[in-house]
Specification:
70 residues, alpha+beta, 3-stranded antiparallel sheet, two-stranded antiparallel sheet, 1 helix
Length: 70
């Protein structure tokens, strides 16, 4: 069963990252980005930071294959 607290990002290079709501500061921005990406709308670069990421990461439509709630 999917919930709205964890997102799976699959990158074009095969790397998979799981991001939890409590692990990043701007989770709502990630959800908004995901919704636009999945509707094939124009999305820009999104930078995220938080305790679970170790350092800031950026995602863009050029490096993401899929993104979904898990």
């Amino acid at each position: 069963m999917k919930n709205n607290n964890k997102i799976k990002i699959t990158y074009k290079n095969g790397f998979i990252r799981f991001i939890e709501r409590d692990g990043v500061r701007n989770f709502s921005s990630l959800v908004e980005w995901m919704n636009k990406f999945n509707k094939n709308e124009d999305v820009g670069l999104l930078t995220m930071s938080g305790r679970d990421l170790g350092s800031a990461i950026c995602i863009s439509k050029n490096n993401v294959l899929s993104i979904e709630f898990v």
